[in-house]
């Protein structure tokens, strides 16, 4: 509230922290009349706090916080209100989930005289309650690990159970406009149609695949590591009907016999191949290449092994060239540059030794390679920690260091706009920065958005930058890389309960973002359509391509400046997607291995 944070604790009561200076928060008050505090909602100058104390002293407490330096307990309600978990407030009523005791409805119109109106006990292990009105009827959706209850609570003194769904619910999110119910269950995610709350209709469900992370998406397929040693391939052509179509675990056959443990440490897609980093102990690492031209039948095609370790979704593939940073003993990262034109005979082209712990992520713009090296097990106190290594890799045999750029905190992730000399970095505790790299020797921060949680991964769509920050999946908006600002976010914790920390993010444009958490794989709809503006010329552009393959697409304006640059896989008689551009004269250049085409494009 304002410049104060109110924090509930299990042992210390209620703390008040002055956050006027986010770089130097100060505890300014502590009210410890009650302990084992759980959830808190602030309404005007009153903080309503639930209490999980096994006793019956107080299940709901009201604090007067009009003076944040001196919070005061003004009332509490106990006796039959106990073991308070999550609280939901609508108008003058509080709905409290209570473990072992169902849920309570409490009148809080007068915070100094709160009154219990009713208690529903059909469900006894209630995690939280979500209340919405459809028309003139008020419904409560009660999340219990043994089922999801739907109540008519139009009469708060007499809640009526109208339906029970057999799912192990921990939290729900209600789309009021479209009458959809999204449920986070212990074993998966479930979607219901609530057009008729008395008779919900199952639309879709998805069972979690372990604790997935490391994610890449191509066309209508998602490739992710499930946390238990298996590459999973999902068909996401219908966002409401995600299905697993194949899995791959043959890479395990190449692990040395004396291995203590091994897993996948990164995934990258390029030209019908999935590249996997496989790492394990004692200190080995190898690159496995899997042919996914038929995603339903992945096939191993090549392996290259080294002594060392790789951590993070950190390597980069362009055409037949792989940039692969390997953490070695002695706090050195060796950047290996490989030719994988023949996956069964991987050849080394060059290498570069960088004095840092490990490169967490890599991206490339033109001939410039960017390595995020801001990881330090000792919290950024070691002299060998670097933030951003910038290399010229025009000569793949002898890469040259241009500069080492220090970001404000610890650079953990990096990605670039394919058509602009601008990169985005995940700077751990200092937010997301956009950086102008038109002069790679002197990068300049041009935008920053500071987010609440630590940030370890970023991915750029077209105009949106997708970020994984703690329990949130966040989208930041730009205007051709400029004017970085918050576009929206999805809070996994508040909307889905224990949805897990966002571990990896990806996108295939701006309309949909993809993310993994320790609880599953999610698709997020941004509402930002590919064709957004009235004067958008992103019509379907047909090209006659004789040979299918990867092509570099570049658009120049009338002054010869590059306004769009991207690599796309084109088939014969392809349809390509072009970005939003202002009206004017442009030149389109398509360059592939066998041909170069130029076409003048007029935007009207």
UniProtKB/TrEMBL annotation:
Database matches in InterPro entries: LVIVD, Secre_tail
Coiled coil: none
Pfam families tied to this protein: LVIVD, Por_Secre_tail
Domain Secretion system C-terminal sorting intervals: 544-602
Name of the protein this chain belongs to: T9SS type A sorting domain-containing protein
Organism of origin: candidate division WOR-3 bacterium
Lineage of producing organism: Bacteria, Bacteria division WOR-3
